[in-house]
Specification:
The chain has 115 residues and is mostly beta strands. Helices cover 0% and strands 54% of the residues. The termini are far apart.
Length: 115
């Protein structure tokens, strides 16, 4: 059984930073591409950042230069460092593990950027 433990969300002011983490059990993380996705109210879920099993990284256009994704396979954990947060970054952030057409999703953690 695949289980996710996401943490680090919260309420912050514009310009602040937050660090998210996602620890996964039940799979060997090193075999999976790990991604962070977010969904704002009334919007579709969108890619924030993706790190492939080999380390290749992709960012959504709106977060390039502000967010950084990393992984620690030994800890089965993926991280998302978010800097210079904007109100438009508000949403539920989901962790996803994917490999060979199989995808697993975390339960999400809320990030709210507001003054």
């Amino acid at each position: 059984q695949v289980q996710f433990k996401e943490s680090g969300g919260g309420l912050v002011q514009p310009g602040a930073s937050l660090d998210l983490s996602c620890t996964v059990s039940g799979i060997f993380l090193n075999l999976y591409a790990m991604g962070w996705y977010r969904q704002a109210p009334g919007a579709q879920r969108e890619l924030v950042a993706l790190i492939a099993s080999g380390g290749t990284i992709t960012y959504g256009d709106s977060v390039k230069g502000r967010f950084a994704i990393s992984r620690d396979n030994a800890k089965n954990t993926v991280y998302l460092q978010m800097n210079s947060l904007e109100p438009e970054d508000t949403g539920v952030y989901y962790c996803r593990a994917g490999a060979d057409g199989s995808y697993y999703w975390g339960q999400g953690t809320q990030v709210t950027v507001s003054s």
